[in-house]
Design brief:
The N and C termini lie close together (about 10 Å). The protein is globular. With about 210 residues, the protein is of the alpha/beta class. Helices cover about 55% and strands about 10% of the residues. Strands 2-3-1-4-5 form a 5-stranded parallel β-sheet, sandwiched between helices. It contains 9 helices and 5 strands, in the order βαβαααβααβααβα. Bound molecules: adenosine-5'-diphosphate and thymidine-5'-diphosphate. The site of adenosine-5'-diphosphate has 12 residues, from α1 and α7. The site of thymidine-5'-diphosphate (TYD) has 11 residues, from α5. One of its GO terms (biological process) is dTDP biosynthetic process.
């Protein structure tokens, strides 16, 4: 089960709440967040590039997308093992993040060339496990930006990066996510209203019933 959404949408908060709600129903839950900062050299390179390291690396849409994909590729066996051992595996961001952000950076939509490239690379070439479903935590880009800003002010080590401070990118990214969800890209999408708030108990019940 993949949670997707803009920076600051509340994905991590949803993952924590959903883990507790599923646990309360007796389900065993494992979770992983991408990029795997501190666990994968590819993810660490991404973080450094997003904070102005490594020269012009962050300017390359395909170069950055390849690093995110290599991080995931290194986690493929772990995801399969978690899937065998648990009722639910929650992933905070996955392949669709690459599709949404790369397309938004290149001003393409969900049917664009780079979205197909991400699928060819990560699904067909790297053989990453396909998710059962996506949860798109949908909030207006201004709300997500405000939450990310507040988080940056209150948590150490969460300074906003090059993608998070680019309002135009976040707006285009929201539109690509909507397109991916409408197309059922890679797996079915369930759209959650991240402003009204998510009924965690009901969501946990429906996920376990799937
Ligand atoms: N439903 C919500 N209402 C208000 N604030 C929220 C909500 N969900 C998350 N937040 C806050 O917004 C900030 C970003 O949330 P977080 O879960 O870290 O987002 P993401 O993982 O999508 O970047 C955090 O400070 C968090 O406490
Ligand atoms: C996982 C992933 C993230 N991203 C982008 C989305 C975010 O703007 C950025 C960092 O990921 P994010 O999950 O926001 O990390 P954090 O908030 O902990 O810094 O990377 C991609 O472009 N492709 C991907 O495959």
């Amino acid at each position: 089960m993949v949670i997707e959404g803009l920076d600051g949408a509340g994905k991590r908060t949803l993952a924590d709440g959903l883990t507790a709600a599923l646990g309360a129903k007796g389900a065993s839950v494992a979770s992983l967040a991408f990029p795997r900062y501190g666990k994968s050299v590819h993810a660490d390179l991404v973080r450094e590039a997003l904070h102005r390291g490594h020269g012009d690396l962050a300017d390359s849409v395909y170069g950055m997308a390849l690093l995110y994909a290599l991080d995931r590729s290194g986690a493929a066996d772990e995801i399969r093992a978690l899937r065998d051992a648990h009722d639910v595996v929650l992933l905070d961001r996955y392949v669709a993040s690459n599709a949404a952000y790369a397309a938004a950076r290149l001003r393409q939509d969900a049917t664009g060339e780079v979205v197909k490239w991400v699928w060819d690379l990560e699904v067909d070439r790297f053989g990453l496990p396909r998710p059962d479903a996506h949860l798109l935590l949908r909030v207006a880009p201004a709300v997500a930006a405000e939450r990310a800003e507040r988080r940056a002010a209150t948590e150490t080590g969460r300074e906003r990066d090059a993608f998070e401070t680019d309002d135009g990118l976040q707006r285009r990214c929201a539109a690509v996510y909507d397109g991916l969800a409408a197309a059922g890209w890679l797996a079915p999408w369930h759209v959650l209203d991240g402003v009204a708030g998510v009924d965690l108990e009901a969501l946990a019940t429906s996920l376990l019933g799937q």
